[in-house]
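Entry details:
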Amino acid sequence: MVINIKSLTKTIVLLCLLYSLSACQLVKLQQRSLSASLADKTQSILTRPQLSDATQNSLLLSGLNLDQCLKQPDQCVQTLQQKLTDNHEQAYAAASEIYLARALQLSLEKQCDIPLSQTQHSPQQNQCLDQVLTLLDQSIRFSFVYLFETEHTPQQRIFDQRQTQVRLFYNVALSRLITTAYLRHQFTHFPKQLQLNQHRYQFNFDNYPELATTEIQLLRSSYNMRFSGFYSVNRRDGLGSEFVLVAKNQQPLSPDYIYDPESYYTGKVNPYIHAARYLSVTAVAQPHAKTSVQQLLKDAPLEIQLIDPFRYDEVKVAGQGYLLTANYSAPYGLWLAENNLGGTGYKTLIDRKEQLSMPHLFMLEPYNPNKKIIIFIHGLASSPEAWIALTNDILGDESLRQHYQVWQVFYSTNMPILESRAQIYALLKQAFAMYDSNDAAMKDAVLIGHSMGGIISRLIMGQGDIRQQAVQAINTDEAHDFIYSPAVSKRFIFQPIDQINRVIFIATPHKGTAYADRWFTLALRKVIHLPHKFLSAAELAVTEKKINIHQMKNSLASGIIENGPSDLSYQSKFMKMSQDIQPAQGLAYHSIIGNLTQSLDPNKMTDGIVPYTSSHLDGALSEKIIQGGHSIQEQPEAILELRRILKLHAKEKIK
């Protein structure tokens, strides 16, 4: 066989050439996971320590160095605008992220990383904060131009990922600008305007008038707030920056025990009724009408609207309505976290220092005259934390949030139940009296009570007079004068509150519980005492009868004035007397009952603490038995049942 050397050489050269060409191929197919591909599309400086792919692409097209851009953002943005004349939107979007990236970068430096508790700043710290504010201001302006002032409307780009990114740049930059200005200037009220170098911001309070006069204790962005006790943080994505504002407490608490608050606080503000202090705020910044793009990017003033997201779902920008950003859980979560109500609830059971003797009423949002009121009353050794799941669910459900506002009652459960009922009754009456009786909120309120709180709820909405039974139970010569004295009589006469017309009882021992008589509960009852403040106040209230309540103490303790846990016993005289006080005629009420057993026999069912025979209440419009223990209000099935009742209540009263 003859080999053609010349032909072989050509073949080898050709193969080498083809190989070398293939080795220089720049584009090759790479298989990636779906999550990685989607992350590249969505991530930006807000989710990772580098700019978005879209912004990096803009810098590449403009021949700009990334690191140099972050060091000199003004020069970088000028070059972008000069180079990308055929795509202004691309330049504006990139500029908004570059300025925000530099602001976030600078905020981490030592001179700018200042705790809120530090009230005095050095000149270097103020200078750093001023630089951050200038960068944030630029980010807001460029992102606003991209969103609302280019040839494409937001509606045309509704599914554009880049628009979602830039909207977040705008929201976060505005959030940072307001909180940084609060840190820099230490203002205790929202100022009418902010001056940032040559740029001016004016605050508009039309959609949150309370904030015009609210004294600020704390102002924090809620973007990065998470709460371990919540199943979820209920929020809505939209346009605007979300905040929690904590108003300064203007109501110093009295250390005294007021035995007859209805009379004592006539014509006065009851300091135990707390208007909402932990407020959800959404802010939106925009220029005045007919402001050109050139003016906006130069020195046009901007207006910051402060909006209550519990009242408004939309905001108008450039004549169009847009969904408003909102965080409904953050104020509630911060209130619970900062006040440690759960721990306080247990401490009040054995309250040696008597730090919490009077009950408190907390409103979770500013009073809204158009929304019905839900009132929660917790049980023994508990607190408003018992209602976390349900309250958070109400805040997160649009239809419930639109129709209801929440009031939470917090009380010391070592008190006699009759005393707690009387005090809470007076507290609610005074709270309702603070507002116009013609308001929609002053009708059709719903009262929800768990365990001991359910007993108190029944007595608040019951009807009857048990004074004579109380006299017989005490069985002393002075008993009649004591029980029938004006201040004391209120404890034994029951009349429902007009503004409430529905009650929901949850795991309520209407007829008592044997759990109160078990050895460990009996041991606990021995160390739980009636607060000295309460006894002294009661004695003072009946001085005109010259009754010494301390001399009666033993008789009272063996009769009807016992601590809260003792009142829950089947054997207590309170329980025997109060069973006949049933919900007033015509009142709508419901029962939710736990059952740990597998039996449906009424004589066997129990939630582990309260048997069905004690929880059942004749005449209820509905009775829901749920598999679970005594804290049944935390169970998803119970929450669904409560939602059903509340939505039914809202619909019935709307018609």
Notes: The chain is about 40% helix and 15% strand.
